[in-house]
Amino acid sequence: MWYHKPVVNKELLQSLPNLKIVASSGVGIDHLDLNLLSSYGVKVSNTPFVVSTDTADLGMALMLASSRRLVEGYEMAVSPDTEYFPADWLGTEVSGATLGIVGMGTIGYKVAERAKAFEMKILYHNRNQRKKEEESAVGAVYCKKIDDLLQQSDFVLLAVNLTPQTHKLIGKRELELMKPTATLINISRGLVVDQDALVEALQNKTIKAAALDVTCPEPLPRDHPLLKLKNVIITPHIGSATKKTRLVMMEEMSESIQAGLAGLPVPHEVL
Amino acid sequence: LSKKVQAIYLWWHKPVIDQELLQSLPNLKVIANSGVGMDHLDLKLVASFGVKMANAPRAVSSSTADTGMALLLASARRLVEVYYIAISSSMDFCEADILGVGVAGATLGIIGMGSIGYKIALRAKAFEMNILYHNRTRRKEQEEKAVRATYCKKIDSLLQQADFVMVVVSLTPQTYNLIGKRELELMKPTATLINISRGAVVDQEALVTALQTGVIRAAALDVTYPEPLPRDHPLLKLKNVIITPHLGTRTDKATYMITEEAVENILAALNGLPIPSEVLPS
């Protein structure tokens, strides 16, 4: 299964009586009805840890590109109309700023490790608090209430998985709690954010900017307001899009399939 | 008015400091530069008029290091290219065509390990990169250990091993055209050149040829010569080049800190005190 295709529903499962395993690319399994698959006796696998580093790197890349206005700057640098670079054209500093990580799993933690090197102040919100040594290693402060994180962060980075609990986790209320100078970075799933509320927040300057590797749907319809906003960077879900990582993902998926077909324990099985 | 001027705060190289200006300002005591680079000033000429000079070294390092990392990541992950794909009116693209290169485990070669170069090493270490560096002088052992950087006495050795080459030197007669045809050919064909120093450190024509013929994979340039480039320059048209408009210190915070440093220097000079970041003609 690559990028959620084909769609696995009752119809498909009924038509494939000998289906033994669905190997899904990447770590997210929000697009799969696990109960349904289980009822047909079909095993499920994903590729959990291999994607973490590249996804964390992309989170950092988006934060830097957004704050320093990289895309806008590139356009200025190459535009046929540019005669000079205005002296008052500025971005905002990443070094020393406050980063709020929502979802401190493997990916969120790797983001924290990277952000620490930029002397960023790190806050995090997670279902569970991490161990003290893990917190100390990256200088991260736990925010039991997401509100505390939202109110203090200059950058809010979403690294949760999509579940019924995280669906529309960031909506109008959360966006209004954020600083008007803050930037939202989403490397999780489009549905974690209430997209309509986000459009409004960006248009009304409730928050300063957004950088999204994920949207709902992907890709967005071509007339969607998010594609037109100057303060938004969108990338086409490239979190794990490097040659090396994709190769390892393929290898892991093949391994899982082979094990599934041979009736052996399936590596990276999702239960 | 010209007799009243005792200090000049130079902003983005303006005003131009030449013989005519210096002669017209008999009471000028100090020129404070916004930023760290002094290559646009004739240091000997200014000194000959008894005018002191200062730059702003401390304020620039973090934001410039951040710019270097921003460009490295943007180039590796093809951020600008895929942004245009994400917003383009056509929704057709092949995933395999937009794969980037991983950063973790890759080798970063830093040319120029001053304050900015070192801050880059600190950041790159967190991205699990292997770090090589080339510098006029070798850093202390503890400094090397802290970022796990390996010294390359010869620049060739760095160029041959690096997946990303980051140029962070100041522009001097010795670093002019430091990266030319020979150096580009020593680089891996899969390597990326990132320049956050000065345009003139790189032989731009040689770079264009190298990028067009696949001698290196890509380039990301925050600085060019001149800035901006003429609108018909080949660098503006190459798909594997990201150019940014000298973002190095273009943040509100850095601008504020640079001005604070400049004011410190100016007040010291006007009060006959030692100037914190004085620059002497070498």
Automatic annotation (TrEMBL), chain A:
Keywords: Oxidoreductase
Domain D-isomer specific 2-hydroxyacid dehydrogenase NAD-binding: 60-239
InterPro entries (UniProt xref): D-isomer_2-hydroxyacid_DH (IPR050223), D-isomer_2_OHA_DH_cat_dom (IPR006139), D-isomer_DH_NAD-bd (IPR006140), NAD(P)-bd_dom_sf (IPR036291)
Any single Gene Ontology cellular-component annotation: cytosol
GO MF term (any one): glyoxylate reductase (NADPH) activity
Record keyword Oxidoreductase present: yes
Domain D-isomer specific 2-hydroxyacid dehydrogenase catalytic per the UniProt entry, residue ranges: 2-270
Keyword set includes Oxidoreductase: yes
Domain of life: Eukaryota
Pfam families according to UniProt: 2-Hacid_dh, 2-Hacid_dh_C
Family, similarity comment: Belongs to the D-isomer specific 2-hydroxyacid dehydrogenase family.
Name of the protein: Glyoxylate reductase/hydroxypyruvate reductase
From TrEMBL, chain B:
UniProt keyword annotations, A-Z: Oxidoreductase
InterPro entries: D-isomer_2-hydroxyacid_DH (IPR050223), D-isomer_2_OHA_DH_cat_dom (IPR006139), D-isomer_DH_CS1 (IPR029752), D-isomer_DH_NAD-bd (IPR006140), NAD(P)-bd_dom_sf (IPR036291)
One Gene Ontology term of the molecular function aspect: glyoxylate reductase (NADPH) activity
Ranges of residues in domain D-isomer specific 2-hydroxyacid dehydrogenase NAD-binding: 69-248
Tree of life domain: Eukaryota
Residue span, D-isomer specific 2-hydroxyacid dehydrogenase catalytic domain: 5-279
UniProt key word Oxidoreductase: yes
A single cellular component GO annotation: cytosol
A Pfam family it matches: 2-Hacid_dh_C
SUPFAM superfamilies, per database record: Formate/glycerate dehydrogenase catalytic domain-like (SSF52283), NAD(P)-binding Rossmann-fold domains (SSF51735)
Family: Belongs to the D-isomer specific 2-hydroxyacid dehydrogenase family.
Protein name listed in UniProt: Glyoxylate reductase/hydroxypyruvate reductase
Organism of provenance: Pitta sordida (Hooded pitta)
Gene name in the database record: Grhpr_1
